[in-house]
Design brief:
Layout (H helix, E strand, L loop, with lengths): L5 H22 L15 E6 L2 H4 L3 E8 L5 E10 L6 E3 L5 E3 L4 E7 L13 E9 L2 E11 L3 H18 E9 L7 E9 L5 E6 L5 E2 L9 E7 L6 E9 L4 H5 L6 E8 L2 E8 L2 H15 L11
Parallel strand pairs: 1-8
Antiparallel strand pairs: 1-2, 2-6, 3-4, 3-5, 3-7, 4-6, 7-8, 9-10, 10-14, 11-13, 11-15, 12-14, 15-16
Length: 299
């Protein structure tokens, strides 16, 4: 029986390792670095907020695959100094996008950081696979409609108004078809700061008179630290009698007020409670003559 010397055994081991490494090199797919500054050529991303996203405080990352291979998208996150947190995709799963296709990935928006200025930029971080690429891209994403600045301005002004006074939709008194009901807005000052409620705008569903144009309704209420509670009564009528508008309502019972808070002018949204929303939608259905059942509308 032939005995191997230590040098022979070492040489055989080294040769075996070289064979294994060569085999591994043949089977492993090439990958780029674990991070990239942008998506591969031909693939674009835009941040948008559509009408149906507003009520749920969501947005969508619109991704277009202009590459030749199928694109797989995993984690999607949007960072912005105006956000108090990170906007992450609503449903955590992978999405395949065929060449030439566009897919909107929905993200949930965090609360606003009102210490940040209204204007700013958003950064997208997305995990992707396309062809041999398997990586994470991070880059500035375009806000095509400028909705982040508008949302930041509106929500922060509403927060400032809330520090000055609690403004709420207190009650609603219905009226027969052809007549205006009455929306009651309660204003309860906190004793801190000053504000003015100038007007309230018509909603996609409601307006402030019967038979006229859907114009804003003047209010002109000043709020000061020494002010006491106040009640505003506003005439209310359906803007249009369309059953689809009622059943698909998103913003019909969200009332946008022109306000000034400590010298800063803008708009603030005051939404009816879910119970009040159901009452208003049911009344619109009855007023318009297409029956009840509108209280099941999504929002």
């Amino acid at each position: 029986m032939t005995r191997r010397t230590p040098k022979v055994r070492a040489g055989a081991l080294a040769a075996g390792l070289l064979v294994l490494l060569a085999l591994a090199g043949c089977t492993a797919a090439p990958h780029p670095s674990p991070s990239a500054t942008a998506l591969p050529s031909g693939i674009t991303a835009t941040l948008v907020q559509l009408r149906g996203d507003v009520a749920a405080r969501q947005a969508q990352v619109q991704i277009t695959n202009g590459a030749e291979d199928t694109l797989r998208i995993g984690k999607v996150e949007v960072e912005d100094d105006r956000f108090d947190g990170i906007a992450s995709r609503v449903v955590a799963h992978d999405t395949d996008i065929a060449p030439g296709r566009t897919v909107n990935v929905r993200v949930q928006l965090p609360p606003m950081n009102c210490d940040a200025p209204d204007e700013g930029s958003s950064m997208l971080e997305v995990k992707f696979e396309v062809g041999a690429a398997d990586s994470i891209a991070r880059f500035e994403i375009d806000d095509a409609l400028g909705f982040v600045s508008d949302l930041h301005r509106r929500e922060c002004l509403a927060g400032a108004l809330a520090q000055t006074a609690e403004v709420s939709i207190a009650s609603f008194t219905p009226a027969p078809p052809g007549e205006a009901g009455t929306l009651t807005v309660a204003v309860d000052p906190t004793g801190a700061g000053s504000a003015r409620l100038t007007a309230v705008h018509a909603t996609p569903l409601l307006m402030y008179g019967v038979g006229g144009p859907a114009e804003s309704h003047a209010i002109g209420l000043d709020i000061a630290p020494e002010s006491g509670p106040a009640v505003i009564e506003i005439p209310l009528a359906p803007q249009r009698c369309d059953p689809h508008v009622v059943q698909e309502d998103k913003r019909g019972t969200v009332f946008t007020f022109d306000v000034t808070v400590d010298g800063i002018e803008g708009q603030a949204d005051i939404a009816a409670s879910p119970e009040m929303k159901a009452d208003l939608l049911t009344w619109v259905a009855e007023w318009c003559g297409f029956g009840t059942g509108a209280d099941t509308a999504t929002g």
